[in-house]
Design brief:
single chain; 188 residues; mainly alpha; Rna Polymerase Sigma Factor, Chain: A; 2 domains
């Protein structure tokens, strides 16, 4: 059972991206862990992270039915943080914050089906098969959703900011995978 606690951050990260709200994400994770602990005797081994994230996802959809939450009550806005060898200039800080806001907005605007596959694959590092098992869909569906999600994210990054905005073009040029990896490394 202690193996499940190793994946608490991943469970919270998925719940936060699905609910768009820190408090709701905490509720979903708490309920998911209660379910996981009660069903732990039926766990047959294998990857505990994928098993737990499946429970988090299912708990989210159950929570959504009961709460009928379609819009976030409080927008998620975590302060930019990171480790740098030298203090960043004010211009660098402003540009980094702009890029982070743009990426968060683009991710928030994605439909849940696309957002969850991006979070599981790009931020949580699950394999295609693990994502398929977590979502309960064929691996081909995961691949097509991921492709559509990346394409839509890239398009949304270009549309979110004014034409000619350097940060939006930089994010889109980075491609969805590198932008998401950057987002995950920043703790977003």
């Amino acid at each position: 059972m202690t193996r499940l606690l190793l994946h608490l951050d991943a469970a919270y990260n998925l719940a936060r991206w699905l609910t768009h709200n820190d408090l709701d994400a905490e509720d979903v994770v708490q309920e998911a862990y209660l379910r996981a602990f009660s069903y732990f005797p039926s766990f047959r081994g294998g990857d505990g992270k994928a098993w737990l994230l499946s429970i988090v996802r299912n708990t989210y959809y159950s929570w959504l039915k009961h709460n009928r939450v379609h819009e976030p009550m409080v927008s998620f806005d975590e302060e930019f943080h990171g480790v740098r060898s030298e203090p960043p200039s004010q211009e660098t800080l402003v540009l980094d914050q702009q890029r982070e806001r743009t990426l968060k907005q683009a991710l928030d605007d994605l439909p849940v089906l696309y957002r969850e596959v991006l979070v599981l694959r790009e931020m949580e590092g699950l394999s295609y098969q693990e994502v398929a098992n977590t979502l309960g869909v064929p691996i081909g569906t995961v691949m097509s959703r991921l492709s559509r999600a990346r394409r839509r994210l890239q398009q949304d990054l270009l549309c979110l900011e004014a034409p000619g905005s350097k940060s939006a073009y930089e994010l889109a040029d980075d491609g969805a995978e590198r932008a998401l990896a950057s987002c995950a490394s920043m703790g977003v």
